[in-house]
């Protein structure tokens, strides 16, 4: 009798139960994944980190030094006015006549393509791009929100972790994808431009309050915390580059960046602190460098930031504040290592402006590069010439073809990124598979107008999903 | 003529169940990628994953059927 009551399990039953358990786990995983991939199913959790740092995939490691070497003794503050090809700097490299010729070629191409209804350059594509009228940017911010003094209360006080957490929460709410912080010391101050794009000097001062005159912008030494943040770009429009449709996602992200900057400046003002921003697009400092130092991503063969979450499909912005915040460290997600073997962007670049070198180098390719760090330096003059002469707009092919520029709905992308981070010997195989599966191929611009896409064409739940 | 009927039952070894478990996991993995690639608007990747799914499913079915007999 006692023998009959005893629970026994033979090997076959055990394996059946194990099989059922595994099957149930697989179904649960699929269900959970499907739910997480649906924005409406997204349920917010609380920050698990005291500074509000989002959980990242296990293969993203925090490191003390970025994955590119920096020689701070060589690095100097950059003159964006004369150095960059975006402004008058281009004339310094190729001459005024060539700049005039390129401007004329771009205008002629634009008109011809509109008249001929060239895919991605039609009137509706042009109209979409021109529709992104931003609110403008300023170094000091709108300065309209009431300060604690105006309200008759003391300014906000909290630990650096709490400060970082509420800034992250606010900026994510304003539309930033990821947010990181660094402290400006004698080295990282060199990432702030010496001269802004409009020719005004950026001067650090002992004055407690930031100010601006006709010749310069004055940064109080107390504003020693930099906020770096990313704004997502739409992969679906960028993969239609180089067209006006592809280009307008960059414009849209910059426009959104303007709103986020102004809101952040007013938010910090409302707490009783200063927040200094970019006076115009790409002003204040070297955006990818701030992104790298704040752990938002790694420098890449594009010589731009690639993030673990969105690949290169982001624009990077920066602010300065005197509110002490908990700072972040750079990351190593295997991105730079992957770039060494991949070279897909360099192969796809129509103007051959990107480096084919196996290893990053200290040697810059012109005044548009800032020396003092290793990188795959690009030829900005040939890149910009292609924009004006051929593309007739921003290019963006290098962003679109990057194997990290995936929407991360399919599990395989996460596996590949984890594999690239932990098993670099597989990088060449991953690159070959990326080609074989047709990723990075240019899509029809006309087709985009029939797609049912989420707001801004982005998945704003992505960073939280990867917890 | 004998009245006795012999029925031989071959027990499947444990590793065979393990192999079927791996097969099922790979099937789910391929299915998820196939379905999601459509959502990512990646038609070529979706096609490759759907074909792989069909081949993997068919291969499993054929093996199961032949071994069953």
Distance between the termini of chain B: 26 Å
- Rg of chain B is 19 Å
Number of helices of chain A: 19
Low-confidence runs of chain B: none
How many β-strand runs of chain B? 0
Helix content of chain A: 25-40%
- Average pLDDT confidence of chain B is 92
Description:
Chain A has helices spanning about 1-5, 10-35, 80-85, 90-95, 95-115, 125-130, 150, 160-175, 235-240, 245-270, 285-295, 335-340, 345-350, 380-390, 395-400, 410-420, 425-435, 445-450, 460-465; strands spanning about 60, 180-185, 200-205, 210, 215-220, 225-230, 275, 300, 305, 315-320, 330. In chain A, strand 4 and strand 5 (about 215-220) form a beta hairpin. Chain A has a four-stranded antiparallel β-sheet, sandwiched between helices. A three-stranded mixed β-sheet of chain A has the order 3-5-4, with no helix packed on it. In chain A, helix 6 (about 125-130) packs parallel to helix 10. Chain A is an alpha+beta fold and about 475 residues long. Chain A contains 19 helices and eleven strands. By secondary structure, chain B is mainly alpha-helical. Chain B is about 75% helix and about 0% strand. Chain B has helices at about 15-40, 45-69. The longest helix of chain B is centred in the middle third of the chain and has 26 residues, at about 15-40. At the A-B interface, helix 2 of A face helix 1 and helix 2 of B.
Keywords:
heterodimer, A: 467 residues, alpha+beta, four-stranded antiparallel beta sheet, disordered N terminus, disordered C terminus, B: mainly alpha
In a few lines, what is going on in this structure?
The complex is a heterodimer of chains A (467) and B (69). Chain A has helices spanning 2-5, 11-36, 80-83, 89-94, 96-115, 123-130, 148-151, 160-174, 235-238, 244-271, 287-293, 335-342, 344-348, 380-391, 397-401, 411-422, 427-436, 445-448, 462-465; strands at residues 61-62, 178-183, 201-205, 211-212, 216-220, 225-232, 275-276, 298-299, 305-306, 314-321, 331-332. In chain A, 40% of the residues lie in helices and 9% in strands.
